[in-house]
Each structure stands twice: as structure tokens, then as C-alpha cells.
């Protein structure tokens, strides 16, 4: 097992990049099978780490140890748990540069954006650390004269977490922080493409005083095996997953036997609507962030841009001017706004969506091809003349492609926007207050950005309806997913 010098030499604290996995209370450098896997930099193809490829026995061991550790952790006061999370927050901020370097190298997003993700991940740790002291219950007036009723919240127990490659730090931090805050233990499995950020988080958590065993990071390329063990092992009481809707469905089926409590943050197909009365410059800025951040590889990325006929051409021209200023390249290079896609499958999907749209009559207003850098880079793209029969209308592209659909009326665009099995994020721009309420209430989505393209914050409930998932992450509601309510009825009160 190794960490390549390409990565280690870029870090101020090289010990934050580890080639060991955290299985329960032990950092392990080899799997029982002796198998390993490589982590590569998607911008260059360089191997940056070789990690142990863990098997079922190791996942089960991590769960066994988590089960014991959880009981002791849950006995700590909220204030004690808050103290650990506060220290973890401070460490994440202090080490944000190194954490960003690890993230950019394994995932490819531009370094400043990666640093933004670290601070975003840390904000969940800070928020839920504060919430640890406020896991309140209720008292309810008794239903009989001698009865008193109390409701308390208790941790669900051991939580399995499976996280994706597109936000290797923040997606794990926003699961781990509420779980640990309320007294759960967590066994996590990051995407095999981006395990180093998760391991760095675990190193800092240990330094912050989180007892070993409370948080594990399993490194494995056999995601299906890990998911199955999480679902079959009766010590795991909750499974939280961020990723594709398809895998979400598999986990839901697998979890049925033990009625697994599930948190699912799945795919989206976000509409981004610009009405004739919108502030066009603001709408273009919103589209830039909502569509192009992380090279379009975000589940809340605008996937379908609906522009009202009266401003369609003006919006397309303004957007093209801004997108034309974007710079594609290695995430460590100065001024780069768009890194590589995560892998060849992602690149193929983007190419296929563009080719399908063009074959059905769309025009490439900008980009449309792999970028000059070759490899996994794709040009920031704008398609005009897009219609509902094209793949970009129904599937998540997960790439830097903005398809512009033209619409005439409010009723028409609401119907188009809601015509999907997904219901995660949606966005629209208008200055008309009555329309703002009408449209926001009519959109069948868990989140609506109104005159903004950026809705993510630790203080708000992030999550979807329809086939975009179950549960909410962040905010006071984020605690609900990791606690069970217990009602106590006290009789004989004379
Ligand atoms: N909601 C979101 O934020 C995300 C949505 N997506 C959507 O999904 C598409 C495909 O991306 P992809 O990375 O393949 O997403 P996946 O859903 O396959 O991967 C997400 C996580 O699930 C794991 N996983 C894969 N298969 C299983 C399984 N059978 N049981 C348990 N865990 C599993 C992966 O592990 P491993 O990577 O090690 O195989 C990873 O940790 C994207 O193009 C995008 O549309 C993708 C990522 C995030
Ligand atoms: O793609 C995702 O699942 C993560 C969305 C990042 C965010 O919180 O904005």
C-alpha cells in the first residue's frame, strides 16, 4: 500500500493522506485477502494511492466494534459530543488547504472549489455539534388524570453510510456529523474513486477526540458487498446513501427484510426556469453556478434550462458570453473553472447526450466536444433549440452541458418542469411576487431556489421528493434521521 509522492509532496501535513483504512478501532494496512486497488487523479491518470481492498469480514468487524463503541458514545452528554465536533470543525478549517489538495487530486474539481467544499463540509460539523446540545423531546398532557407523558429522542444506533465521488468530503461530513452528534456510530464506505478525503476526515476526527470505533472508513471496490452487509447485518439500524436512484432502489429492496431505516439522497433532473420578467444578468449568474459548478456533476445542478420566449435569445447570448470565459484544465492550475469528468463512463454519457440532442435538431451554441486537453475533459457547452424528446430532457447529464428549452406560458413550464420522476432541486427567476408564490408552490421538488442558483447550506433541509429520495440532511430536521422517538407513559401520579 502506498501514497504516491505526487500527492504527499503537495501537502503541508503529509500524514493526512493515508494508505490505511479505519476498521473499527484499528487502522489497517492490508485486507485479509491481500487485495488492493488504485486511486487515480482523473486530470492526469496518475496513480496517487494504493489502498487495501476490504472484504465482508472486515465490514462485519467494523460493525461489531461500532455496536460496542456506540453504547459508550451515546452515554456522553450532548455537550461532550459537541466538544469533539467543535474540535473537528476547527481542525477541518485549519487543514482546509491540505484537505482541498487531497480532494482535487482524487476527484478533479478546481482547487478553490475543493477548498469551498471542505468549508461547506465543516459547516455541517459545526452546525450539528451545536445541535448535539439541543436534541430535545416533549412533554404531552396526560390522557388520564394520573398519567404523565414524555417523549425523548434516542440515537438509532449503528449507521451504515455510502457516499459518492462528486463531493467526497461534504457528503460524508453531513452524514457523519448528525449521526455522531446524537450518539450514533457510523461505518462508512466512500466511493472507491475518492476514498482519501474520507480517510483524512477520519484522521482529523481521531485527532479531535472521537473515540476509535465510533467512525470507520471501509475502502473497497466491492460496493455491492458492502451495501449487502449493511442491509443484512442486524446491528446496522440505519443506512444513509447518496448516489444514483438505481442504487437507492437496490438498497431499499435489500433493506426490506429488516425494515431498515433509510436516508436516500438520489438523482435529480433540476429545472431552471427564467421568466420574461426576470433580472437576466442575475439569472445568467445563477445558471453559471447552478449548471457549471463541479463541471455539472452535482445532483442539484440545473439539468434543463427553460427560458421564456421573450428573453430566450438574450439569455442565450449572455450565457454564451459568460461560459466563453470559462477555463478548462487541471484543478491545480491557476484560473481553472472546469476540471475533468470523473471517468470515461461520465465522459461517454455527456458525449451521448450532446450527440442525441444534435441528431434531433438541437444546435451547439458553444462547446459540444471533448476539450483540447483530451483525457476526461469536456468543453463547457450550451445547446439551443432543445426539445422534450431529447435525452437531456429526461436523464441527469452530470456534465457541463446547458440545454436551453423555449417555453411560452407559466402553466406550460410548470407541467414541463414537473414531468419527471425526480423531485430534488428546482430553480426559477422572476420579479413578480404573486408568480413567485404560485410557481414555488406548484413545483414538485424538495428544494426551490428563487432568484438564486445556489441553495446548499447547512442551516436548511437538503433532500428530495418522488424518486429523488427520503429524508433530509442539514438543519434542525437533519437530526430526525438519526434519532428514534420514545414515548414514556408514567402512571399512578396521584
Ligand atoms: N445524488 C448524487 O449526488 C449523485 C448522483 N449520481 C448519479 O448517478 C450516476 C452514476 O454515478 P455513480 O458514481 O455510478 O453512482 P452510484 O450510485 O453507482 O455510486 C454512489 C455510491 O454507491 C456505491 N454503490 C454502487 N453500487 C452499489 C451497490 N450495488 N450497493 C451499494 N452501494 C453501491 C458506489 O460505490 P463505488 O463508487 O465504489 O462503486 C458509491 O459509493 C451519475 O451520472 C449521476 O447521474 C452519482 C453520484 C452522486
Ligand atoms: O450532488 C450531490 O449529492 C451533492 C450536492 C452538493 C450540495 O450539497 O450542494
Automatic annotation (TrEMBL):
Record-level Gene Ontology MF annotations: succinate-semialdehyde dehydrogenase (NAD+) activity
Return the InterPro entries for the record: Ald_DH/histidinol_DH, Ald_DH_C, Ald_DH_CS_CYS, Ald_DH_CS_GLU, Ald_DH_N, Aldehyde_DH_dom, Aldehyde_DH_Superfamily, Succ_semiAld_DH
Q: Name one GO biological process term.
A: gamma-aminobutyric acid catabolic process
The organism sits in which domain of life? Answer: Bacteria
Under CDD domains, the record lists: ALDH_F5_SSADH_GabD
Keywords attached to this entry:
Oxidation, Oxidoreductase, Potassium
Asked if the record carries the keyword Oxidoreductase, the reply is: yes
Query: Active site annotated at which positions?
Result: 265
One GO cellular component term of this record is:
cytosol
> Where in this chain does the record put each Aldehyde dehydrogenase domain?
27-487
Q: Which PROSITE patterns does this chain map to? A: ALDEHYDE_DEHYDR_CYS, ALDEHYDE_DEHYDR_GLU
* Family from the record: Belongs to the aldehyde dehydrogenase family.
Instruction: Please identify the protein, giving its name as recorded.
Output: Aldehyde dehydrogenase domain-containing protein
